[in-house]
Design goal:
Layout lengths: L2 H8 L8 H17 L6 H15 L3 H17 L3 H11 L2 H16 L6 H13 L4 H14 L1
Helix pairs in contact: 2-3, 2-4, 2-5, 2-6, 3-4, 3-6, 6-7, 6-8
């Protein structure tokens, strides 16, 4: 189902992703962070739906459908390094802190920071090209909103 997208993600010199694939890739990264602690809750799935609905202007039904595609993609996707590199290439720098905020929203939806989720976010931020300071500020903005 996602053969072309997976091929682009694993290409040693990937081209920028077209918008529909970038949406799927971002949503799959949100799913990956939610699954990283072994407890993919309804709250996390619901938060992902709200994030993608807002970010991409989708209806609740479209957001849930996108998340469903992303859940499948996440299980088939390459390692996080290649996956995140493709997002870095597809998203302008100024929008990457927004990606980190979305990831932090998923991590913090249950009110706690699990070690596995925290570790994955510490790995993902530099792979997205976001420095430690901007990553910490993204987390603080999310904590202040919750």
């Amino acid at each position: 189902m996602f053969g072309d997208l997976l091929k682009r993600l694993t290409d040693p010199d990937p081209a920028p992703l077209p918008d529909p694939d970038a949406r799927r890739a971002l949503t799959a990264l949100l799913v990956r962070i939610a699954r990283s602690d072994g407890d993919y809750s309804d709250d996390e799935a619901g938060r992902i739906d709200r994030i993608v609905a807002t970010r991409f202007g989708l209806s609740p039904f479209e957001a849930t459908a996108l998340r469903g595609e992303a859940e499948t993609l996440e299980t088939e996707a390459p390692d996080t390094v290649r996956f995140t590199r493709a997002l870095k290439d597809a998203v302008p720098y100024e929008d990457r802190t927004g990606i980190l905020e979305a990831l932090w929203e998923v991590v913090l939806v249950d009110g706690k920071r699990d070690e596995e989720e925290d570790a994955l976010l510490r790995l993902v931020a530099p792979m997205l090209g976001v420095n430690d300071r901007d990553s910490a500020l993204a987390r603080q903005r999310v904590e202040n909103r919750t």
